[in-house]
Design brief:
- This protein is an alpha/beta fold.
- The chain has a domain of about 160 residues: 3-Layer(aba) Sandwich (Rossmann fold).
- Helices cover about 35% and strands about 15% of the residues.
- It is built from eleven helices and seven strands.
- The protein has a seven-stranded mixed sheet, with helices on both faces.
- Helix 3 crosses helix 6, helix 3 crosses helix 7 and helix 4 packs across helix 6.
- The chain is globular and about 55 Å long.
- The two termini are about 40 Å apart.
- It binds S-adenosylmethionine (SAM).
- S-adenosylmethionine (SAM) binds next to loops.
Length: about 290
């Protein structure tokens, strides 16, 4: 196993909680596709486990994909930019950087990472003009420049392709034997839940249905398809033929994100998980 990069941005719906569930029972696959990339926790885990020959990574968020491209291609320029005093954790500087525009790609990525580390709750939210509008987070000592992790992420991304766009791009690239992981914006579990803050305009029920059709197309193509979402009747019904598995994750459970609790989530696979070795032994003993 190689040293594992952690997501270099904190992202709503981050998958670090579910990594063990997601990695269990994975089949051998050819290429990897993740079209709702976000912080990319699952991708970084698989990459560290040397399971990926080539990955196709994408997200609708242009600033996020620009940051990934810069980490992949210009990580040393990014690190020198982020080490400048103009990226200090201070309220006046924060609002100045938040209001800044028209920069090159390295400066855009530095601004994006800086705001992600210093804004309230690491949220990504823009107003109707597309301007980032989350207030200053008042954190004591946020790690704005984490050189070691940026270099690990840079290495992990070298043989991969990055796209900005809708998840349907996966239909262009995925072939039989590939693994596709869908981690779409969650169906809100309550009205006050903050889970979908990064998706202004939202990911409606119609979008969830469009995704389910894409899931089925990939299934019939012979891809391995894995999906995670919050526990809801909508997702259970849409994917009932694949028998979704219920798992538990610790998440923020109120709108301020300061209360945490165990909540149910769903994982949908289109392949039969292997029977765990331990269970097999128990069954043999029982039948003796
Ligand atoms: C639940 S998050 C992904 C979390 C990620 N797996 C992680 O571990 O951090 C969902 C992502 O979907 C993206 N998104 C929303 N609508 C989309 C669409 N139609 N096509 C592609 N990505 C979309 C959002 O920008 C967000 O990054």
């Amino acid at each position: 196993m190689l040293d594992e990069a952690k997501p270099f941005v904190k992202w709503a719906g981050g998958k670090r909680q579910l990594l063990d569930e997601l990695t269990k029972d994975l089949p051998e696959f050819v290429n990897y596709h993740e079209p709702f990339l976000g912080g990319g926790a699952f991708f970084f885990r698989l990459e560290a486990e040397e399971k990926i020959a080539k990955a196709y990574l994408s997200d609708l968020n242009e600033e996020l994909i620009n940051a990934y491209s810069v980490v992949k291609n210009d990580v040393f320029e990014l690190m020198s930019e982020l080490s400048l005093p103009k990226y200090a954790n201070n309220e006046t500087i924060f609002y100045k950087i938040r209001a800044s525009k028209a920069m090159n790609n390295v400066e855009r990525a530095a601004r994006f990472i800086y705001l992600n580390k210093t804004a309230f709750n690491g949220l990504y939210r823009v107003n109707s003009k597309g301007e980032f509008n989350v207030p200053f987070g008042r954190y004591e000592n946020p790690k704005i420049l984490d050189s070691q992790n940026l270099i690990l992420a840079h290495r992990a991304l070298q043989k991969d392709e990055l796209y900005c766009g809708d998840f349907s791009v996966v239909l262009k690239n995925a072939r039989k034997g590939d693994l596709v992981y869908f981690d779409p914006p969650y169906v809100p579990i309550s009205r006050t839940s903050n889970f979908t803050d990064y998706t202004r305009g939202g990911f409606s029920e119609t979008e969830q249905e469009r995704l389910m059709k894409t899931y089925k197309t990939l299934d019939s193509r012979g891809c391995y398809v894995l999906l995670s979402n919050s526990y809801s009747d909508l997702i259970s019904d849409l994917y009932s033929e694949y028998t979704p598995e219920v798992v538990y994750a610790i998440r923020a459970i109120n709108c301020k994100g300061d209360k945490r609790g165990k909540i149910k989530e769903l994982i949908v696979r289109n392949w039969e998980p292997q029977i765990p070795q331990r269970k097999l032994v128990e069954e043999v003993v029982a039948s003796y």
